[in-house]
Fold this sequence. Notes:
mainly alpha; 7 helices
Amino acid sequence: MDDRKLQPLIREIRITHQRRYAEAAYFFVLEALDYTIFLESQDRGIASTRQSCAVQHISPQELLDGLRRYAQEEFGPLAPYAFRSWGVTSTEDFGILVFQMCEAGLLNKTDQDRPKDFANGFDFSKAFSSADPISGS
């Protein structure tokens, strides 16, 4: 779905939840999800992203790893500052964003997925202090 179609939906989510998070946070999570699906499909040898979406579920931990890696590539050590400017102060906030989008029908979840699965995923200051954009340490 292109950004023009997503923007009104994300605005509605933000209104419903008292604009707790910036619009950019929702778009970042969606971009990081695409990035994670791409990485997972490569790791599993799945030829296309469309095929990977149909046969796999991205777990909260896999998404957190993808969020971290994507943020390292996009922002490097400035990622925590970007997150804070969006209202995101911990990985738990990413879980809240994901579940808000699930509630609105933008994302899917399984019955086993819980917002608390995103708690204590990684420490922002430690994850983005490394010069190595992939290791996170």
